[in-house]
Amino acid sequence: MQNSREFSLPPFYCPLPAACSPLAEAAGAHAVDWMTSHGLCDDPPTRARIHDAQVHRLMGLMIPQAENDEVFRALTCFAHLVLLAEDLLFDGSHSAGGIGGVIEQAGRVMRVMESPGYRATAADDPYMLALVDVMRRLRKESTPGRVGRLTHEMRRCFAGAVRGLNAMQHRGLLTEDQYMSIRLDDVAGHLTVVLIEMCGSEPLTDDTWQSPSVLACLESAGMVGALDNDLFSYRKESVHDLNLINVLQGTRGLSVQQAVTETMMVRDRVMRLFLRLREELLVCAPVPLRYLLVQLGQALRGHVEWGLTAPRHTAANPGEADAAAVLATCWSDRPSSDDADPLPYPSISWWWEHVGPSHGDSAPSRSE
After folding, report:
1. How does 316-354 read in b/e, with b if 16+ C-beta sit within 10 Å?
2. How far, in Å, CA of 131 to CA of 335, rounded?
């Protein structure tokens, strides 16, 4: 496999505006103070991870118009814990006892999240105590249905991550469809949708959540975010990590540059689908769904902006001028593929069944 640094990243297609919540900086400072109070920022490596990830900025870009300030603050704390779970449980899986150790730790996390009356004991570590606290806050500020959905999607993330770890051991046998199925879960796309929805003043009904067209739209957005992550994090990640670029090299014998280009084409085909589904749903969307779809469109653009400039992915700490230069050249006005046919992956091809007759790719209004 070729050196992962020997490629050029194509520009990203996303004809939607980005914005950042004015709550982000204060929520980030609050989250760091809160984590420090639980003993989670005592060592330099953890502080460095928090600094490099810029989780508060990502939250602000994903949810630029939060309608509940307290939920946004609590979810920013929760998002920091998710980051630590990813780094300490999954990236550190070998020292944690392999997949078995990860499953055990994930099970403990889920037990806390599922238990409204969880009683912390001296045996609980600082991470679990912090999780107990933030779940208590979320139950106070949000609804049982929303907290239950957050818990469900966190379990889905863990299941996807375990599948990903297992796939890493058998990557030579992994098909592109298997990868897409795993990636949709382990990259937390569904969890992100729930975080956005929880910051709206009105919850979505169960019928709306389960509508096939809504689900196709939300899942396609999650997949765009997953593939964006594959692209903007690839230069820093090992060639042995699990992402579509490496999978395509294995399944099709592509060079690194060819695989990067193909990944962007797959990504843009899903983006085009998301934009069409979103536009159709917005025509008669009830207020809670409209809030989610508008925020979600902005979140996709913000996610790329974060990924291209956060030290976690760039391995550097760019100044404002450097970041502005990167973002000025990272966007494309047109998708890299005009193919509107379903992608040949059974796990996601059903999404295309829920889009209406083709009406072109006119850019959504930037005044939404």
Report:
1. eeeeeeebeeeeeebeeeebbbeeeebbebebbeebbeb
2. 41
C-alpha separations of 334 from 26, 105, 329 in Å: 36, 44, 14
One-letter amino acid of 218: L
For residue 207, which amino acid is it?
D
Q: Is 12 exposed, middle or buried (0-12, 13-18, 19+ CB in 10 A)?
A: buried
Q: What is the pTM of this model?
A: 0.91
Task: List pLDDT tens digits, range 207-223.
Answer: 999 999 999 999 999 99
CATH number, span 20-354: 1.10.600.10
pLDDT tens-digit map of 109-153? 999 999 998 998 888 899 999 999 999 999 999 999 999 999 999
Other beta carbons less than 10 A from residue 5's beta carbon? 10
Nearest Cα residue to 56 out of 39, 42, 41, 75? 75
Q: Where are the domains of the chain?
A: 20-354
Cβ atoms < 10 Å from Cβ of 235? 15
- Tell me the H-state helices in the chain: 24-37, 44-53, 55-62, 69-84, 98-114, 126-141, 144-169, 176-186, 189-198, 206-210, 212-233, 244-252, 256-282, 287-309, 311-314, 320-328
Alpha carbons within 13 A on the beta-carbon side of 105: 24
Under 8 Å CB-to-CB from 22, ≥6 apart: which residues?
Answer: none
| CA angle centred on 329, ends 252 and 270, rounded to 5° | 45
Tokens representing 161 are 């991550």
98: left (phi over 0), alpha (psi -120 to 50) or beta: left
Identify the DSSP state of 97.
T
Assigned token pair, 304 = 């790329």
